[in-house]
Amino acid sequence: MLKNGKKRIKEGVFSVSCDVRKSDLDSPEAIELMVECFYSKIKNDPRLSRIFFELGKVDLDKHLPHIKRYWGKLLLGNPGYDRHTMNIHRALHEKVNLGPSDFERWLALFMETIDDSFSGPLAKRAKKVASNVAGNMSSSLKVDLD
Ligand code: HEM
């Protein structure tokens, strides 16, 4: 058993309880929980888990710290994330051919994660940022969203 009641399970991933009293995304700990809750939904989604784990060969032990730092920068202004996410998704797109439904599903799970467990101005901001980034990313990859 690890801190916060998290259990390490197969694939080096955490099983995490997302049924919590809602808080804002105003601390690194809250962002950490949000990212873990989001990825537990991704793991349970057939198409996205195939993209991440079978085709994309994502190692969550390496990937999650990047994602946590990414949101820490965007929501809290913390330093520590300085990577080119567009190039990373361009390479992913070349490999797996992302479609509109992949972006829609990614965004729906992200929104659901926030609405289930978080509330407040930064939670609202996270939803806006995710939706803007998904829109920009899909149009630069020439994936048409409705
Ligand atoms: C169809 C939608 C999306 C899919 C299927 C997807 C999938 C992935 C995958 C598989 C990776 C790991 C790639 C690798 O390490 O080679 C990744 C990285 C990442 N994604 Fe996405 N993504 C999507 C949309 C988004 C959006 C909208 C955002 C931001 C709001 C985002 C933020 C990130 C970040 C920050 C990384 C980490 C890059 C790094 O290693 O520094 N993704 N994504």
Put the structure in a nutshell.
This protein is mainly α and 146 residues long. It has helices at residues 28-43, 46-55, 60-76, 85-96, 100-117, 121-140, and strands at residues 7-9, 13-15.
Task: Please characterize this protein's 3D structure.
The chain is mainly alpha-helical and 146 residues long. It has a two-stranded antiparallel sheet with strand order 1-2. It has one domain (3-15, 23-140): Globin-like (Orthogonal Bundle). Helix content is 64%, strand content 4%. Strand 1 (7-9) and strand 2 form a beta hairpin. It has helices at residues 28-43, 46-55, 60-76, 85-96, 100-117, 121-140; strands spanning 7-9, 13-15. The site of protoporphyrin IX containing FE (HEM) has 22 residues, from helix 2, helix 3, helix 4, helix 5 and helix 6.
Which percent range describes the beta-strand content? Answer: under 5%
What is the strand tally?
Answer: 2
Helix content: 55-70%
Low-confidence stretches: none
The tally of structural domains comes to: 1
List keywords for this structure.
single chain; 146 residues; mainly alpha; Globin-like; two-stranded antiparallel sheet
Write the layout of secondary structure elements.
Blueprint: E1 7-9, E2 13-15, H1 28-43, H2 46-55, H3 60-76, H4 85-96, H5 100-117, H6 121-140
Antiparallel strand pairs: 1-2
The protein binds protoporphyrin IX containing FE.
